[in-house]
Structures are given as structure tokens and as C-alpha cells.
Amino acid sequence: MQVLTLFVLLWLSFPSSALGNYLAKAEQLSAEGVKFTWAEVKSKSLQIILEYQDGEGNWKQANLGSGFLISPDGLFVTAYHVMKYCLLRQREVNRFSETVDCSTAQPRLRYKALNSDREFEIQIISHLRETDSTNGKSFHTPDEIIKQRDFVIGKLKAQPGIRFSYWQLADFKQGAISLSNPRADFELRPLLPPKRVFIAGYPRDRDLEIAYGFLNLEDENNRGYFAADYPLYAPAYLEKEGISPDTQWGMRVENHMSGGAVVDATGLLVGVVVNGNKNTAGILSIENVMETFFSRVGQSGASPAIFLTPTATPLYLRENPPE
After folding, report:
1. Which among 90, 102, 181, 185 is most buried, taking Cβ atoms within 10 Å?
2. Residue 116: is it exposed, middle or buried by C-beta count within 10 angstroms (0-12/13-18/19+)?
């Protein structure tokens, strides 16, 4: 298995011709036989915008990335590297259940999120140190990204009573991710069976698009997956699983789709996309996000932040330990 891991990591490090498919219309998504609609995807997705002042004091906008909603009151997930300008003053600390207002954190910068045709200011609720999130790097090789926790929990600043559409979170085995050793060495292994997924996000200067294909590699420590241009399965196995032997492996992820939702055909969250190129998508598992920032036990009087499906198990946002 170590030989396989080394070979695959080398393979993933070199780009090839553009692979994978994109959906840009509602009827294209419907034809894929999924249990959700284009309108639902858009209502649960966020486009993360940075507004900044130029040298003359004029405000301008830049699309930085994507995100997705996980609760009706506006909790969302995105990549740490998408929100790094908001978190410049918090780079050396872990913060849980403490608000950083991204509209005021920097004097000449302010973040906003577009949800369909609505615009909201953003708060970051929980994040790790930069070292644990991205190690201060803008680009990671596949073996590096699986050891980083490049994600944050945010919240839209909305008027009381506003409710949001959100992605369902499946219940999972507690302790699936080791928080005591999140940077553990690993071996990649084929995902059996490969998982058909859809990645929703906002490529640079474009509206919502959805990449689709198969995840075919997983980290043995449950931290994440890859959709890689690498044939791992025998034709007979694929036929047994109802998958065409000539399936095109690998998924293309474009700039600014980082932080977007990765869901299966039923609409359950699989993870958050944090890394990609023309032939590979790097996904951190949703269990990784949940184990890092949520607990099944809350502080006295705390209200659940989210509920898992179908068990209705409550999860609570972790809080900073008392000093």
C-alpha cells in the first residue's frame, strides 16, 4: 500500500488535460437523477466576496471563494484560506464560539456573502490557528492538504426571523477523526465503492456551477478524499457496482470554488472542497469539520447548533476552555 500511496501522490502532483464535467443549468442537474434541484443548491450555497478600498478610497469587489449553509439560522462552512484576510489578527490562536466580524476586522477590507440574490455580512464563529489550517501556504500538494484543516465555521449576519435553506448532515461515528493527532501520516487507499459526488461553487467571474464525478481515493484516517485521474478498479468490479468501466476519473475544480459543498446524489454532505486543479479535487470530509468544531455534549443551557440526519442527534458548537 505504501508503494501505491507514493505513486498516486506523484501522479496527483502533475497536472494533465482538463477532466471531469460541469453542470451549469437546472435541466442538466435533473438529468443526473439526483434528489435535489438546482434552486435548492443555489439556496444552500454562498459566494464569498471581498470588498476593498483602492488607493483613491473607492470600494471594489473580488470573488474569493464559495461556502455552504448547514443550519437554518445561517451557520456555514467555507475554507480557511478564503477567509484569511478577516483572520489576520487571529492567525496564532484557536477560537471556538467567539465572533470575528469580517465587515470590521480590517479597516480597508470587508467580507460579504451572496446567497442567491441576497447579500449578507459575515462573522467567523470558530477557526483554528493558521498553522493548523493552511500553514500559511497558498498551495498544497495532496499529501499536505489532507493533514491541514482548511475550514472554518461562519455565520451570516441576518435580521431575526430570517431562515435559510441548508444541507443535511448525516449522523456519523463519534471519534472517526483523531483530534489528538490530526497531522498523522497516512496511506491512501481506493475508496470502495467509489462515491459519486457533486461539487457546488462559484468559479471566478461566473455564476454557480456544479462539478460532478467520483471520489476514488480516501485517507485511511477519515480526514478526506480525492477525485483523481487514476484508474484504480477492475472493469468487472465496476460493472458489479453499476459503474461504467470507461468512467472518466478525476474532477476539475476551478479557482474560487474552494469552500464549496461536496454532496452525494441524495443531497447529504460529504465534505468541503479545498484543493484542486485540472485533474484532481481534494476534499476534506464533513466528519473532519464536525469533530473539530462541534460536540455531542453542550455547556449547561447551550442550544444545539445543528441536528444530524436521520437520528436528530444534536450537535453543539465547541467553546473555548476557561482560562
Report:
1. 102
2. middle
Interatomic CA distance for residues 169 and 74, integer angstroms: 15
CA distances from 313 to 151, 169, 174, 268, 296 (A): 23, 10, 12, 15, 8
pTM of this prediction exceeds 0.85: yes
| CATH code of the domain containing 299 | 2.40.10.10
SS3 11: helix
In-domain check, residue 323: no
**Per-residue pLDDT tens digits for 260-308:** 999 999 999 999 999 877 788 999 999 999 999 999 998 888 899 999 9
- Shared domain for 275 and 183, answered yes or no, is yes
**Dihedral sign, Cα of residue 184, residue 189, residue 192, residue 196:** positive
Neighbours of 173 (CB within 10 A): 8
Residue 81 burial class via C-beta count within 10 angstroms: exposed 0-12, middle 13-18, buried 19 and up: buried
Strand 45-53 to 209-219 pairing: unpaired
